[in-house]
Design goal:
CATH superfamily of the largest domain: FAD/NAD(P)-binding domain
Structural class: alpha/beta
Number of domains: 3
CATH topology of the largest domain: FAD/NAD(P)-binding domain
Number of helices: 14
Number of strands: 22
Radius of gyration: 24 Å
Length: 471
């Protein structure tokens, strides 16, 4: 029987990073992964690298480039005619990127002497060591890190076949552009994938059960996004709906739903994306075999350091509380590996960035303005638009703004919210600032390169004190 200091169950971002960090710290590590490619080969990287973060961003970039040629190049004095795209090439490019990333993890495992255990991992028994079954093999570990991730949540009565009715996996592999596309769910996945196919020619209707749009984001950012996506880009988004059924016919699909006013409607489409959130992937884990506690939603219960109630058993990433973000899982994986090694790993959950990779991008870190109001926190806000920024104008991307929220007394930054081009990159400065307890004055005093998009961050910081220089 193979024996390890640490066995990680799952090789998505949280799992493979935990395995590598534990190996760097001198421990013997085995990492279990059951994911298989459409060809039947085992692959590392989990949902994120195979059918999530990485392939979706590849398609987003391809579709954005196509739209730039059609609509933005004219402003630069560039005329293009007969512009076409080849979907097969786009999908092949996406798959090559995925293959490069997943094989890269295999290389990192080899470099760091992490043993890749191929198959389904199931907890069998505990004691001095923990025993885990990997298909027909059993291994033992002194410490276990569970990183089994999440899977798409499906709606009752709406069977996903990933042909006509798809979750994120099927929506990344359409063999043709559907003339009419329905999307259930106006969250991150729905907006990103809906925008991909809209750019490539689909008429897209998004149906959202909640009465508010992007409720997790700052209200002003959500309002700006609504205006851009619906009026500027032509996404048809309907809020507060209840889906009553989906019927298949020779002409495609009919979505039956009722509005918040109570009227009944039907939307006919050629394909449907169901993107109503994700659920923890704990099926078949064997939690009951060792007394591992799950909450009613299937999440593994852990403390602030990702320890379960069982000795030397940890859980990280989407399978535990908190936002389902790959980088959150990665940081938890590092923290747990370092704790096992006797170090003082930690994660600052107040400084985890969120990003929606639409165009323009949406990114934030820290608290929203509505949350500060609800908590009764006295704060000051500074906001600056990209429309006044020379680099944004030069890029023909003037939409959006950056907003900084700072404590009214100490000036310490409480939240930063952005909607605009490259917001996913700009938010990193805000994360660093919050991690080190910076004030808005600190950002205002830092020299930012000119011309650059990052100047908007500085101007927003200056605006907290009502002294922006360029607006």
């Amino acid at each position: 029987m193979k024996s390890f200091d640490v066995v990680v169950i799952g090789a998505g971002p949280g799992g493979y990073i935990a395995a590598i960090r534990a190996a760097q710290l001198g421990m013997s590590v085995g990492c279990i992964e059951q994911w298989k490619t459409p060809k039947g080969d085992f692959a590392l990287g989990g949902t994120c690298l195979n059918v999530g973060c990485i392939p979706s961003k590849a398609l987003l970039e391809s579709s954005e480039n196509y739209e730039r040629v059609l609509h933005q190049f004219k402003a630069h004095g560039i005329t293009a005619s007969g512009v076409k795209f080849d979907l097969k090439t786009m999908l092949e490019r996406k798959d090559r990127i995925v293959g490069k990333m997943t094989s890269g993890i295999a290389g990192l495992f080899k470099k760091n002497k992490v043993t890749w255990l191929q198959g389904h991992g199931k907890l069998v028994s505990g004691g001095t060591t923990w025993k885990i079954e990997v298909d027909s093999e059993t291994v033992e570990a002194k410490n276990v890190i569970i990183a089994t991730g999440s899977k798409a949540r499906h709606l009752p009565g709406i069977p996903v076949d990933n042909k006509l009715i798809c979750d994120n996996e099927g929506a990344l592999a359409f063999d043709s552009v559907p003339p009419r596309l329905g999307v259930i769910g106006a969250g991150v996945i729905g907006l990103e994938l809906g925008s991909v196919w809209r750019r490539l020619g689909s008429t897209v209707k998004v149906l959202e059960a909640l009465p508010t749009f992007l409720g997790a984001a700052d209200e002003t950012v959500a309002q700006e996004a609504w205006k851009i996506f619906t009026k500027g880009q032509g996404l048809d988004i309907e809020l507060g709906v209840t889906i009553s059924g989906v019927k298949e016919s020779k002409k495609g699909l009919s979505i039956q739903y009722s509005t918040k006013e109570g009227s009944s409607k039907i939307f006919d489409c050629d394909r449907l994306i169901v993107s109503v959130g994700r659920v923890p992937n704990t099926d078949g884990l064997g939690a009951e075999n060792i007394g591992l506690k799950l909450d009613p939603k299937g999440f593994i219960e852990v403390d602030k350091n990702c320890r379960t109630a069982l000795p030397r058993v940890y859980a990280v990433g989407d399978v535990v509380r908190g936002p389902m973000l790959a980088h959150k899982g990665e940081d938890e994986g590092v923290m747990v590996a370092e704790i096992i090694a006797g170090q003082h790993g930690h994660v600052n959950y107040d400084a985890i960035p969120w990003v929606i990779y639409t165009a323009p991008e949406i990114a934030w870190v820290g608290k929203t303005e509505q949350r500060l109001k609800a908590e009764g926190v006295a704060y000051r806000a500074g906001r600056f638009p990209f429309a006044y920024n020379g680099r944004a104008l030069g890029r023909e991307e003037p939409e959006g703004f950056v907003k900084i929220l700072a404590d009214a007394g100490s000036d310490r930054i409480l939240g930063v919210h952005a909607i605009g081009s490259l917001a996913s990159e700009l938010i990193a400065e805000a994360v660093v600032a919050m991690e080190f307890g910076a004030s808005s004055e600190d950002i205002a005093r830092i020299c930012h390169a000119h011309p650059s998009m990052s100047e908007v961050m500085r101007e927003a910081a200056l605006a907290v004190d009502k002294r922006s220089l360029n607006g």
